[in-house]
Write a structure and sequence with these properties.
The chain is 80% helix and 0% strand. The chain has 202 residues and is mainly α. 25% of the residues are buried.
């Protein structure tokens, strides 16, 4: 795993790298990954192609770097979760933190949702699946029955669904995020409560 140090070191490399990532993601979202060229990214940034090359040699390198930087907090959350007791408080905190991560990385996740074929072909698709599995593993109680396992997984995907499918519903963005978080937290509470009750033998 490329720990936090790498992420921090890369971020310190200055703003150019981040500006390239932001502009590339904008263009990928606007016109699709396939149709975007390195030249267009350089033009929008008003830098030479050589300046862009200094940081990234290919489009895929840019996308992978965006993905690595924006999903590093998921790895950090998984590490944190592994070290915590399997309490309801821990699981609620995981859901809260994951909601914040999704909000911070919203443009990337929207791009991934809308360009699933591209994402599948590039290694980011596989890496994202591994991160989701890591998240699932810190949420699910080993003793949980299948219905409760589905509840835990549904809590994670409720957060995803909230980001993709509530955009065009009326209402304030922050209120919608809170509502989605509440539903995800309810699912976790139900799943955790059922497992604890089973253990108590009642």
């Amino acid at each position: 795993m490329g720990g936090t140090m790498d992420g921090t070191r890369q971020r310190r490399r200055g703003n150019t790298r981040q500006r390239i990532q932001d502009v590339a993601l904008e263009l990928f979202a606007e016109q699709g990954y396939e149709k975007t060229s390195l030249r267009e990214i350089a033009e929008r940034l008003e830098v030479t192609k050589a300046a862009l090359y200094y940081h990234f040699k290919t489009k895929e390198e840019i996308l992978v770097s965006i993905f690595d930087d924006l999903t590093q907090p998921i790895l950090d959350l998984i590490e944190w979760g592994k070290a915590q007791p399997h309490t309801l408080e821990t699981k609620q905190e995981i859901v809260r933190r994951y909601s914040d991560i999704l909000a911070d990385a919203a443009p990337l996740f929207r791009f991934m949702q809308e360009n699933q074929a591209t994402v599948r072909e590039l290694r980011v698709g596989e890496t994202f699946k591994e991160r989701m599995q890591g998240l699932r593993d810190i949420m699910i109680d080993p003793a949980a029955d299948l219905v409760d396992q589905v509840r835990y997984i549904s809590a994670i995907f409720t957060l995803h669904a909230g980001m993709f499918f509530l955009q065009d519903l009326p209402g304030d963005a922050e209120q919608k995020r809170k509502a989605v978080l509440e539903v995800a937290a309810d699912l976790v509470t139900q799943a955790h409560g059922a497992t604890t009750k089973d253990r108590g033998g009642s």
